[in-house]
Amino acid sequence: xxxxxxxxxxxxxxxxxxxxxxxxxxxxxxxxxxxxxxxxxxxxxxxxxxxxxxxxxxxxxxxxxxxxxxxxxxxxxxxxxxxxxxxxxxxxxxxxxxxxxxxxxxxxxxxxxxxxxxxxxxxxxxxxxxxxxxxxxxxxxxxxxxxxxxxxx
Length: 153
Fold this sequence. Notes:
By secondary structure, the protein is mostly helical. It has helices at residues 2-26, 37-45, 49-82, 91-122, 125-139.
């Protein structure tokens, strides 16, 4: 009985610690959570209320489109990887699935471009200059990594 008491106390302590860490990790109700890329752009560009409303509409459409594309990619990848253990493999079917995945990735990249272009079109002239700077820094068009070294080509 003595051994079980120690285990129960240890279990209770672990449960309390897990609860504490989950509470801090997930955040307290009403606490500021990490900002997404959209909030970063809104803060950096200092959108007007009208621009903010248009931005939120654009973001909602973008997220829905990306979710649909992502779900489609997941379904196709499940099909592809389920065929790994098949007794026989139809190469044409594998090629069709991988082509469909590639097409979805192209669509996803196009959707990202359209989102960024839509944000750019929401901006006034001053904000457009600032947006160009943000995009250039985020995409690292100068081929420099974190330490400022050139990446191998």
